[in-house]
Amino acid sequence: MLPYDTCLADLISFLHSSPTAFHAAANAAALLTKQGFVQLHEQENWPDLPAGKYFVLRNDSSLIGFTWQGGQTKSGFRMIGAHTDSPGLKVKPNPLRKEQNCLQLGVEIYGGALLRPWFDRELSLAGRIFWQDADSRLHSALLDFQRPVGIIPNLAIHLNREANKQQEINTQTDMVPLIGLADDNKVDFQQLLREQLHRQYPEAVPAGFIDHELYFYDANPPSLVGLNSELITGARLDNLVSCFAALQALLNAAVDENCLIVLYDHEEVGSTSAVGAQGPFLRDILERLLPNSEARQTALRSSFLISADNAHAVHPNYAAKHDPQHLPYLGKGPVIKFNANQRYATNAASAARFRQLCTLAGVPVQEFVSRSDMACGSTIGPLTAAGIGIETVDVGIPSLAMHSIRETAACIDCWHLCRVLLCFFQ
Fold first, then answer.
1. Tell me, what DSSP letter sits at residue 186?
2. What does the pLDDT look like over 29-51, one tens digit per residue?
3. Does residue 311 sit in the same domain as residue 343?
4. Residue 340 is part of a domain; what is its CATH number?
5. DSSP letters along 11-50, please?
6. DSSP-derived secondary structure letter, 220
7. Same-domain pairing of 384 and 244
8. Based on the domain organization, do 340 and 417 belong to the same domain?
């Protein structure tokens, strides 16, 4: 395991360089490749895969990485699940708008974003594009403008005296980023993408269309705050902290076990896709590793999944929003999440097993249950458990302002999660 300071620095670097799920998956793949993991491609055969370290990408946004003991599955699989996506603003296919001499880009709201904090923020653009070359071949690349290119200005309080009272945000008319002045010049969004593509990939020569999946993101990097720099604040802590911790566990595990991490996309929009937790990605990979159904089912009955996704820390200004007997504190360790209606997959057996891991790792542990009169969120845990029938516990670091453009957590909790997940794989 990396030392605390190094781990924290690497986490901040991972967060900053992963503005979209595509970038998060690419960074995860690069870390695994650097440590000797071999990429497998689903369109190829994997007959009698030898023992080794492997990973698979699907849609450039979901990743499964694993250590494989060549079919020796008596002890099953040790699995960690997380997700690569975060709520945000996705650019529409034909986004360009000219209003009152202002150039704007229309967006859709991706997931359950907390919208008000997006106003008056410096925003950049990143994502994935596809284009056609002169020979009609398709190419793809990741784009990241890496500088402020947009902002959603608030309406001045002089023109909206009710601004500090609760007001509905119209996602069609209010959430439209401003990217410059229109003047009388004709602006071509496709040309803007070509220019950015050329900056990042001078060798790329798009001759035809460009299709894109682009997202606005907070241009300001993550940072440490607090009198003793004990807090980390930034975008996409939910759920890239868990992705990072899962990767660190897999990269540093030095045991002869079948250890696997699955980093899904589309959790924030319900997970119903070819690369989400309700899709076949994990099941497909397990079936290819263990094509014999009885052997696969035997292995899964001996397996365990830790579903890692951020939990709601008790907010010092809003403590009444929590059940008073279940108050997850910042800095007091990862949280086991419970829900009677199976919004979380935790049961007594899986909770006890995670508590045991925390004890072995020397890490404190907490519990979270929603107030009985409040709705509860969900995770990939129940979906994965239902999909492959694996015993599962839902856990996560406590955090504040979940789904905001910037979230806050305790640095030590990030370190605690890395330690307990490594202990699981050890």
1. -
2. 999 999 999 999 999 999 889 99
3. yes
4. 3.40.630.10
5. HHHHHHT-SSHHHHHHHHHHHHHHTTPEEE-TTS--TTPP
6. S
7. yes
8. yes
